[in-house]
Amino acid sequence: MSIKILNLIFYSVLITNTFFHYAIAKPFKRVLVISGGGLNPGTPLGIIHGVESMGWKPDLIISSCGSSAGSLIYNSSNTHEEHLNVLYDRGIYNSYHQISLTNSWFWDLSRIFGRANKRTIYPNIFSDLILHVPQNLPMQIQNSDFAIQPNRTKLIFIGSKSLFTPNQVGNVRPIVHPMFQSVFFTDLETSKYLSDIKNKPHHVYPYSNVVSDNKIETRFNTIDAFRASIADPYLLKPFKFENNYYFSGAVNLFSVDIALELGDEVVATYPKGFFNKYENAAIESTYGFYQNVRILESIQHDDVKWIDMDGADENSFNPQFGTIGLNFDIPNTRYGFNLILKKQYEFGISRAKEALSVPPYSQNHLRKPISKALLHDYTCKSAYAWKTPDSDYCENDFESGCNRNSARYCFPLR
User: Fold this and answer.
1) Any idea of the CA torsion for 295, 300, 302, 306, to the nearest 10 degrees?
2) What is the DSSP letter of 239?
3) Does residue 129 fall inside a structural domain?
4) Which end of the chain is less packed: N or C, by CB atoms within 10 Å?
5) pLDDT value of residue 24
6) What is the pTM of this model?
7) Is residue 12 part of a domain?
8) Residues 290 and 406 in one domain
9) Residue 201 buriedness (CB in 10 A; 0-12 / 13-18 / 19+)
10) Is the predicted pLDDT of residue 362 greater than 90, yes or no?
């Protein structure tokens, strides 16, 4: 074979490879996914600072539900010191003190979540809920605009839009009639990369209550987008904007698949565990899929660096189950409030650094990994933890009432 022919083949291959490289190039190099997190703004901010301290500055951050609070604080100013000033500012303290329990007893919870069993009518998720959160939060931050300067980290907050109104509550709904649309809250530049992305839960569950196309919303500021993203059905009122009602980022809480479409490198928070029966019923009756199965689908990705979130709720502002119902205790003093914020922040930094210190895509640092086998075999055989009729929590077959083989009923917890 002549030198000319060899050169021709070489350059043809080079040109072809270059063409395909740029043809499938992703818009972002590094994408950070922070899923959920409840009412704990210190943790997601700590995660962002933690990955940056390891030299891994995200080009895009995708947040859902409570984790959006960390992203809006990060977006508010330029330096870590300024971010911490916002975190510990009176505006955050005042905003979280606007939250209160309106229905806390177990019989209240049974009544509210009992609506989830009525699948043939439009559910009442607009009033008589568990938490009160005002429409407008009194946060005072320097920048609440998604349209930030060039070369700054871009943001996407995940939320959803209701396709029915309070006037339709109680009416019989068609068997196949989507009730929600997934929403990307972001800036105009980032929105250009989102138009071809389809809603993942709809793709996996074509008969869910969520339409296939995502709504891209660039008119919101970060505070209002955060308020919309935390509005879990049955938990608190939606955010109302131009006669439309916006709900929770739980519509796509674990958006790792979206991040992998948008970025070359993905770091994401690893699920803390499965949702309880109330939370799972709320999502299944509204969005039309099981959140616990969605968790199992998300962890199938091996090309992700996972941040272990086990133990994140030990310093939390989230409502907790007590003897007769829910408890919701936020410290009355700013000192006590900020002390918990500091613990959340330090937890986020520590776990982010840990994730970037282990070998690429290793899962050896995960304290309580969820077995991937549960996606295909949802029994206790593969579970890390489970419950039986005789024990609410099991990790060992030799514990009293915990044997998976002899139990009349067994439900995996992790």
Assistant:
1) 10
2) E
3) yes
4) N
5) 67
6) 0.90
7) no
8) no
9) buried
10) yes
